[in-house]
Write the structure tokens for this entry.
Amino acid sequence: MPDPLLTINNLRIEATIYAPGEKPRDAMIVDDVSLTLEKGKVLGLIGESGAGKSTIGLSALAYGRGGIRLTGGTITLNGREIRLADAATLRSLRGREVTYVAQSAAAAFNPAKKLMEQVTEATLHHGLVSKSEAEARAVELFRTLSLPDPETFGDRYPHQVSGGQLQRAMTAMALCPHPDLVIFDEPTTALDVTTQIDVLAAIKSAITRTGVAAMYITHDLAVVAQVSDDIMVLRNGQMVECGSVQRIIEDPREEYTQALISVRRIDHKEKKPTDTPLMTVENISARYGAMGVDVLSDVSVELYPGQTLALVGESGSGKSTMARVITGLLPPRVGQITFDGKPLPGALKDRSREELRQLQMIYQMADVAMNPRQTVATIIGRPLEFYFGLRGRERDKRVQELLDAIELGEGFADRYPAELSGGQKQRVCIARALAAKPKMIICDEVTSALDPLVADGILKLLLNLQAREGVAYLFITHDIATVRAIADSIAVMYQGKVQRYGVKSTVLAPPFDDYTDLLLSSVPEMELGWLERVLEHRKMESAGN
Amino acid sequence: MKGIPISALLGLFFTVLYFAAAILAPWIAPYGMSEIVGDVWEPASTQFWLGTDNLGRDLLTRLIYGGRNTIFVASMATALSFSLGAILGFSAAVYGGWVDQALARFNDLVMSIPTLIFALVVLSVMPVTLTVLILVMGLLDSTRVFRLSRAVAVDINVMDYVEAARLRGEGQRWVIFREILPNALSPLVAELGLRFIFAILFISTLSFLGLGIQPPEADWGGIVKENREGIVYGIPAALWPAVAIVTLSISVNLVADWVLNRTTSLKGGRGA
Amino acid sequence: MHPILKLVAQRLALGCLLLLAASVLIFIGTQILPGDVAAAILGQGATEQALANMRADLGLDRPAITRYLEWLFNALQGDFGVALSNGRDIAESIAGRMKNTIFLASVAAVVSVPLSIFLGLLAVRYRDRWPDRLISAVTLTSISLPEFLLGYVIMFVFSVKLGWFNSVSNINDGMSFGEKLGAVALPATVLTLVVLAHMMRMTRAAILNVMQSAYVETAELKGLRRFTIIARHAMPNAIAPIVNVVMLNLAYLVVGVVVIEVVFVYPGMGQYLVDHVSKRDVPVVQASGLIFATIYIGLNLLADIISILSNPRLRHPK
């Protein structure tokens, strides 16, 4: 057997944490991780935030971000130990033997330089080929990665191309020097799902065609299953388990891996529409300020009491604008909203306190949805005081009841938001909305910023609360799996219009319109060969047309 | 007092010392403010710790009384600029629309003329009294406070928790005093220190140019003006105010730094 | 038209508008405020008749708007009227002094701009080590001291104690360039120190900001040398903020000149302005105020335009 390309043994990585107001302290980021990567193989690193996966990826370049230090173990690349290598050795291997694709290509490209110059820079710097050869390589890569006008693509500046194209350009930049190993650090996470599949396909075909080895870092098991040979599951800087893709997906041994795989498989039976809707949105069109185009045009949907309507769409589909219109922050240009049998005034200032109470909202970023200088008791207690005039002991008692309802229990009332974890913060926001005893809650991407397992917990909590309190949800999300888990009816939004609308079972069943088909088929599924199947299917369809 | 860094303690000590000396000037100064007690420009001695000035007055006494006037005018001007600037800045951010536009554009206009030049232009026609000085300094400096407090408030105003309060139906009072102000406090307090230092430097400059506090009243800029002739003969009388100003402003800076760090690191502070 | 030209044209128009508004403000400051110009000139003992004559002389009996327009149109043609205190033509007096002031400010700029950029880079290179800390400490001290006091401290050390330079910086047309340089050495040093602190601090912040960006990390992971990274990736993006810093500080310099000229008895615009403020010579104050404001607004406008021109997003639109 030939020597492996990369061997990491007992790697230990530490960082100095500078928390404001505290003495700097050292923290272990990665603890005793070992891995081996053969030439031409792809290893997927998977884990939630704080698992140390990016840090391990960068250690293959012997690079530590910020105050991160590689303090122990060995990293052997192409037969030589690099953890303690000197600066000159590191410079000679970075950008030649190992290259890096960052999550945000938009930030990783220099805004002042043309793409071609940046894509060929490492190749030329290491003196691998001549300038014209390097540019020819780049054009070839642009073509492989299905970038538009490959001949002239490199003449553009980073801000002149789209996010998905930039991500592919970054892949071209990484592949141009013909490295032995490429580190992909969440390359599709920031993209919309219909863009993600194209980039994923481009990356996969480039890897196959060049035979390069890769480390693919992501938090999405379904994505990594499409590109890797092996998968390593990480948690809190330690390895949970490691094995072939097939083994990990079909026969996960560790509880944590099983939990990651079964995530979003909540079984939720849809409820049928009742006689009278709680809220009716009729022919709403809206625009921001003096902008000449409608961000929403002619939107009509209905929400039934105690049920969930999911608004699904990608960025720019107008789903968040819907939330602003319904809450009264953006009065509609035309159209009418009826709530609980009565017309709802378009502007926030015209609504009565009772109307405001009935309609609460939960935000995507729980961090900024709570005043950092108020305690949990104040945050949850204020609606009680404001809407019901509860004070003193009565109020405290109700606050505790609400804390119990969101499964937080004793001891949380006196904490500040900064002392809560991400999931706990979102729970407090749910309690704040519940405190008003509303008939309807708007949930704006409430699980998008959370790790999958935590998000799962939040979804289950929301379903329980709905069953108990009979509250209706307008659930705004871009994630189809979340929709399946929680919705009773669905409105698919695209470019400010409702593309498809109805009960869940009808909306998610064929025949589809083009956009819904594209959207649904683009969501990665946790099975081997899914990517190839979808691409094959699409190719046949376009050939058929 | 536990947990205060040594630099902040030092700053606090000197700041308190200067303010105390300013308030207690008549009791702690060795001589009368304009009392001629010795020869012109006598060197330092046990009788006159810092020597005497251009008319034979005790320099330490002048410095203490000068501090009293300088600190008084600077404090008043800072109080004015701060209350005016912060209130207008917050209102502009919260109300938005044309109120915000009008205030912000007018503020830009006033800031487009250098403060010192504007002050000189106005003082060329106004009688130079303490009230006029405080008004001119306070009003001109309030433009800086306005810009900062508006920027801070605009940032906070778009936070989801402020939107949540609005959606709940809270009035402007709650939004300003309970949601925005507690979160704007630390940058504003740090700015208060900087504005105070700036006011000290500004009133000293005006007095030095003969357009500030008028003789026979003492003040730090005035002491330099009165004793500048001595410099050429190697008499350092005019340089003592430099020591006073530098120690005071560094002290205030250290305290402001500490306040800024302390309030952002409270357990309710932003960030994890 | 290229969108960037449109943007620049807009900024220029806005600058002109701002200048116009500033001139109104200066005029209002001296004419309409409760302080009465005539009373201010003649003092409190003036008779009612003398005041009335003075007002007629100054044209104060006419409406303010007429007087403003007249003043503005004359000023635009370079006619600022005559000084009340000595009856000399203001434009003529200003011309000579303007030359001196610009000379002083230029010498200070030529020294301070490269020096502060160099020191700023040094502070970044040795970040959080002693050179950086020393630079921060000196910065803090020098912004804690008013310009005039800094002036006297320097004068005391270099002119009185060491005897290297003259304490009074007189300059006239008969002097050679070298002699002039020697004459302004001390005031230029003080001005340099005054702006150095700010400029260094802002340069340091601007470069640090660029050095912490993701594209510098990308360059590092390509195996480029530190120097190459700075020259090829950091510099093109740091130039705009640095130029901005330089422009803002040149504007600051123009104001600092006022006080420093008084300290060193230097025959420039600043001293002229301060002298006539004490004499309550309103036309001179207005004229000098307008010129200082124009330079200040102009430099700020230039900073604005340079940052537009150097922005790749605006230069190469989609």
Remarks:
- Chain C touches chain B through 53 residues (CB under 8 Å).
- Chain C has one domain: 90-315.
- The mean pLDDT of chain C is 82.
